[in-house]
Specification:
Number of domains: 2
Bound molecules: alpha-D-galactopyranose
CATH architecture of the largest domain: Alpha-Beta Barrel
Structural class: alpha/beta
Strand order of the largest sheet: 11-8-7-6-5-2-1-12
Strand content: 15-25%
CATH superfamily of the largest domain: Aldolase class I
Distance between the termini: 85 Å
Radius of gyration: 23 Å
CATH class of the largest domain: Alpha Beta
Shape: globular
Oligomer: single chain
Amino acid sequence: MSGGLLWTLARTLVLALVLMAGASAARAQGAGQFDAPSADLARTPPMGWNSWNRFGCDIDEQVVRQVADAMVSSGLRDAGYEYVNIDDCWQGARDAQGFIQPHPQRFPGGMKALADYVHARGLKFGLYSDAGWQTCGGRPGSRGHEFQDAQTYARWGVDYLKYDWCSTGGLKAEGAYQTMSAALRQTGRPILFSLCEWGQSQPWKWAAGIGQAWRTTGDIFGCFDCIEDRGDWKAFGVLQIMDMQQGLRTYAGPGHWNDPDMLEVGNGMAEHQDRAHFSIWAMLAAPLIAGNDVRQMSPQTRSILLRRAVIAIDQDALGVQGWRHAVDDGLEFWFRPLQGGDWAFMALNRHVAPRHVRFDWRAQAVRDDLSHRDADLARRRYALRDLWRDEDVGDTSRALDAEVGGQDVLLLRLTPAR
Ligand code: GLA
């Protein structure tokens, strides 16, 4: 037998043993290979932090540790942000057996130690990979290594995987995502699976049984109303991403969410734009994945990301995404039904200049075929609470008469009046 053949046989044997060990661990924990993904992983939209929007490829273990500390000290963790996710560029090379290694200079302590550090602070740990040969940042992708990578992640203590779609020429998205989904489930470790295929093959139609969230669009960037050409792709502002969510709400619900991409709050937009961005994401029942440097947040950024009353809209247990109810020359009126008979209402001013809003509640037919809820505003009276000003502002017996700032929102919670 040639040396080369012997070497290949030895490698295959090592790999087979590792995979068998993983699979038997999975069986021991009662996980079947093709069980449906657990809805319990994301009964409400996932919340956390991700490195990409602020750090790009310039990420290392020291930053991640400091971010985890800051998530605790700033109160983000206690407000519900639980995942600390490293996006692209954490990878080094694969070793001789094909096992992925973290970048040796940026993550010298290894991923297991880093995950332990994050877990010790009551947080969860997430990583990123790609269905193709290479990630979008040119690092090794998981193609051909799906089961091996899933076992590795489980061994490290990974709780969340974002799975991208670069260099996948010839692959079919549904099959590729199904493969990684099965590989994750086979580990027996609950790992939230977040699909990032940019909405290209309408994942909302097939991904509910595969993962807990799917990106619906290309990448966001920190601009309220812009499209930016980046060569062979485009990055989108907040309003552009929002407009692309039209028609998707019926596909979302507990355990499976539309993902309009991560937050740009604190990454350079004006405070009112950040406030509108965060409100829109809450109305959309979107994952709230902060993308700023949480180690040094301005008081304004902090007060947006930590606004409990708005987080509560996003995280509402009914799990029904809101919708654009009416449009009036750049003014939009959105509704979202909430558990227990409440409603969320958003008036969004797309214009740069402030606008006066008059909205006669009793003249509105607000019915939702999806949740079978009828606000019955003509007959029922609701108390109104302004969630950003944090004050009661009357009830629905009188028409709303208010000023909404440019590129800003009025966000109200309606509660049936006694
Ligand atoms: C794609 C994704 C982004 C980010 C980068 C990393 O563009 O959509 O969210 O993960 O890749 O390279």
